[in-house]
Write a structure and sequence with these properties.
Blueprint lengths: L2 H24 L3 E7 L17 E5 L8 E6 L8 H7 L13 E4 L17 E5 L11 E4 L4 E4 L1 H12 L9 E7 L1 H16 L5 E7 L14 H13 L7 H6 L10 H4 L7 E6 L3 H8 L11 H5 L6 H17 L1 H6 L4 E5 L10 H4 L6 E2 L2 E2 H9 L6 E3 L15 H8 L2
Parallel strand pairs: 3-5, 3-8, 8-9, 9-10, 10-11, 11-14
Antiparallel strand pairs: 1-2, 1-4, 2-5, 6-7, 12-13
Helix pairs in contact: 1-14
This protein binds 2-acetamido-2-deoxy-beta-D-glucopyranose (NAG) (7 copies).
The site of one 2-acetamido-2-deoxy-beta-D-glucopyranose has 5 residues, from loops.
């Protein structure tokens, strides 16, 4: 059985054992309907399969009436015709196959005790159906197959749909997203600011989107080649930050990596990431091709099963992440960060990591507090956790939400 099949089997087991718990906790969660963007075809904005793009919108109230939180949905990428054709007729490539109703939890929750700083804002989840972090602009057509790589146009179509609904009069705004959606916040942060009133307070938050240009355990630049093929296939290059692509004009596709694009982003930014991000661990540091004999198999499922050499390798990855953030950490006056040491991926959308009695903490701060303190300027918010295994607040067992997110990539 390969790793994917095993993960799938394991996730089924977890789903079965946790079913009663899930039904119970959904009672108090917010369900929000899908809105299709009817005007999208007028600017050629389509999902991979040609369906209409969509978002879910929960209107703000009270003191939050004029504040807006936009959250990019995540879900990996497709970087060649084969993988994009496979993706097109699924919920990752078409709104026809997506859930019509989404649960809004964590940073999207409308409950003040679960989401104290953003619960009464206008909250929008942007559905992901282009496969290139909302940044491509191309079409593949050869007579039998047709694929739309229109992420950048989807981004524009959704923004233009929301502007007359109140986004155009926003007082405060936060652009966020997780995983491939976290990457999208790096790519679109300054563009978001340009649509909003000049006196609005606009900031951006990336959750699990700081994908590193790192080598894998076979010394291969797996992720670099992956992004290069993605940028080429989907026509992303012209939508990358032009100051960045000009600065590294020999390898403009490198500006897909947040570590190179970050210095050119002008809007205040918060970087939330685990130093042992499970997606990066499994796909950048130890991709299946780099571990043909499965020496990392048990370590990937549970960090307590890693041997000392593997732990040292993981510490090296953490070190590289902190090094890549050093200049931001030292020099950014308006930026914030929270780099914890939990084996996880995406921590703002799930209630148990965002804010709960036993949610992860760094120097006693929950993630929601750190983000809120930074957004509202209540205190400096640059947290770096001590290395694994020091943090006892982590839930390092492969959890339900984590398995679900990884399976969805
Ligand atoms: C969501 O959609 C369902 C089915 O179309 C409808 O019955 C319900 O009233 C909608 N809810 C809201 C809040 O619009
Ligand atoms: C908000 O969440 C708290 C804690 O889970 C819960 O006790 C309360 O009932 C929720 N309020 C609403 C309006 O759902
Ligand atoms: C179009 O591309 C698909 C996927 O690569 C391929 O299966 C199909 O044969 C191609 N059709 C033509 C007419 O070349
Ligand atoms: C923002 O992006 C849109 C395309 O999505 C583009 O038309 C517009 O010019 C961009 N705005 C700025 C200020 O770059
Ligand atoms: C590039 O940098 C110049 C000078 O700082 C700035 O005026 C311009 O807006 C920047 N362009 C982008 C796309 O950020
Ligand atoms: C290293 O990358 C090359 C090019 O992508 C690939 O052909 C090769 O199989 C990779 N080797 C390993 C051990 O992953
Ligand atoms: C911080 O900024 C200063 C001035 O631009 C620069 O000289 C210094 O190298 C930067 N520090 C780091 C760690 O990047």
């Amino acid at each position: 059985m390969n790793a994917n099949a095993l993960m799938a089997a394991f996730s089924l087991l977890v789903l079965l054992t946790c079913a009663p718990l899930r039904i119970h906790s959904q009672l108090e969660r917010r369900l929000v309907n899908m809105t299709l963007v009817r005007n999208a075809p007028s600017i050629g904005a389509y999902c991979l399969d040609g369906s209409l793009p969509a978002y879910h919108f929960d209107r703000g109230f009270g003191a939050g009436e004029r504040n807006w939180l936009l959250q990019f949905e995540g879900g990996g990428w497709c970087n060649d015709i084969k993988s994009c054709l496979e993706r097109a007729p699924t919920r990752r490539g078409s709104t026809r196959y997506m859930s019509r109703v989404e649960v809004f939890s964590g940073i999207l929750s409308n409950n003040a005790s679960l989401n104290p700083d953003f619960y009464n804002w206008n909250r929008v989840k942007l559905r992901y159906c282009d496969g290139a972090s909302f940044a491509g602009d191309a079409v593949f057509q050869n007579g039998t197959s047709l694929l739309y790589f229109r992420g950048q146009r989807i981004w524009r179509a959704i923004i233009e749909d929301l502007l007359p609904k109140g986004l155009g009069q926003a007082k405060k705004a936060l652009l966020s997203g997780c995983s491939a959606g976290g990457l999208a916040t790096f790519l679109h942060c300054d563009n978001f600011t340009s649509y909003l009133p000049k006196d609005a307070s606009v900031k951006c938050l990336s959750d699990a989107g700081f994908f590193l240009d790192g080598r894998d355990i076979a010394m291969n630049h797996t992720m670099r080649y992956f992004y290069k093929s993605l940028v080429t296939l989907q026509g992303v290059e012209k939508n990358l930050n032009t100051n960045c692509t000009r600065a590294i004009s020999l390898y403009p596709e490198q500006c897909m990596f947040p570590q190179y694009a970050l210095p050119y982003i002008k809007t205040p930014f918060f970087i939330l990431n685990s130093a042992y991000d499970v997606y990066q661990f499994h796909h950048i540091l130890v991709p299946p091709a780099a571990d043909p004999h499965g020496h990392w198999y048990h370590c990937k499922l549970n960090p307590a099963a890693c041997n000392p050499v593997q732990i040292a390798t993981l510490q090296g990855f953490r070190k590289y992440m902190l090094q890549s953030l050093r200049s931001f950490f030292i020099n950014s006056t308006r930026g914030g960060m929270y780099i914890n040491s939990c084996f996880t991926h995406c921590q703002s959308e799930t209630q148990d990591t965002w804010l709960a009695p036993d949610s992860p903490r760094v120097s006693t701060k929950a993630i929601s507090e750190a983000v809120g303190d930074w957004y509202f300027g209540r205190s400096v918010s640059k947290e770096i956790d001590c290395p694994y295994p020091c943090d006892k607040t982590c839930h390092n067992m492969i959890g339900l939400s984590q398995i679900q997110v990884l399976n969805n990539l």
